[in-house]
């Protein structure tokens, strides 16, 4: 990447500290200090991340119940439903500018991310499909799936720049090596306490290591993701 582009990796970081760092990087892109950032990270502690907004109210009951299960709680301005973060789930944030002479199209932007991620999986000998996954947590049309089971969720946020153009925050959450029964538990609890009727099932999710004979390191996977972005991200 050029000098105004950055690649940042955190093998273990508290979720809230990461979101604070992500916000700083967004501001740097908005102010033209940077053109784009690829941020790769993994949560240090099990943390349920709520979308910001009144729909997902943080109550004492929710905090206490999650704490008893071993989960922290924080919020983020992207996504539409609670998302579990813990060691064994790799996240990426791609922050980039989109000029006024190149109009932003949400479907195109999502598919660009999905195509890069599909290439990442292909380098590991795995084929994925892009579609919604009924009964998965934070379901969306641009999930990546292996044999119908969700392995990646995606999200986007678009911010306007003062001098024109947009900044796009494109995100993905990749299940690498996590017990799917455990990762859906806090989501189910949160839905119940917040009176949200979505039905979440563990068996519609899968982990990368369930489809590999080897178990590569986080650093190895970070590098493969980086290589996929360097080779296939639009310029």
Automatic annotation (TrEMBL):
GO terms for molecular function: ligase activity. It comes from the Bacteria. It holds the Pfam family LplA-B_cat. The keyword Ligase applies. SUPFAM superfamilies: Class II aaRS and biotin synthetases (SSF55681). Coiled coil: none annotated. Keywords: Ligase. Residues 32-220 form the BPL/LPL catalytic domain. Gene3D superfamilies: Bira Bifunctional Protein, Domain 2. InterPro entries: aa-tRNA-synth_II/BPL/LPL, BPL_LPL_catalytic, Octanoyltrans_LipM/LipL. PANTHER family: OCTANOYL-[GCVH]:PROTEIN N-OCTANOYLTRANSFERASE, OCTANOYLTRANSFERASE LIPM-RELATED. This is Lipoate--protein ligase. It comes from Vibrio panuliri.
């Amino acid at each position: 990447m050029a000098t105004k582009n950055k690649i940042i990796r955190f093998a273990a970081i508290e979720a809230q500290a990461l979101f604070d760092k992500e916000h700083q990087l967004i501001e740097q892109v908005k102010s033209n200090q940077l053109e784009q950032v690829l941020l790769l990270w993994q949560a240090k502690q099990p943390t349920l991340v709520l979308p910001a907004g009144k729909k997902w109210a943080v109550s004492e009951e929710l905090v206490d119940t999650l704490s008893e299960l071993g989960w922290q709680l924080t919020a983020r301005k992207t996504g539409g439903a609670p998302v579990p973060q813990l060691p064994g789930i790799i996240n990426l944030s791609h922050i980039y500018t989109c000029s006024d002479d190149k109009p932003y199209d949400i479907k195109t932007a999502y598919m660009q991310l999905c195509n890069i991620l599909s290439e990442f999986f292909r380098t590991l000998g795995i084929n994925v499909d892009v579609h919604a996954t009924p009964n998965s947590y934070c379901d969306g049309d641009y999930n990546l799936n292996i044999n119908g089971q969700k392995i990646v969720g995606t999200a986007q946020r678009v911010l306007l720049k003062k001098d024109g153009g947009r900044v796009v925050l494109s995100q993905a959450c990749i299940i690498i090596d996590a017990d799917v029964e455990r990762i859906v538990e806090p989501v189910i609890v949160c839905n119940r306490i917040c009176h949200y009727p979505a039905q979440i099932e563990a068996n519609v999710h899968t982990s990368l290591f369930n489809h590999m004979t080897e178990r590569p390191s986080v650093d190895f996977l970070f590098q493969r993701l980086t290589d996929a972005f360097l080779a296939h991200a639009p310029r």
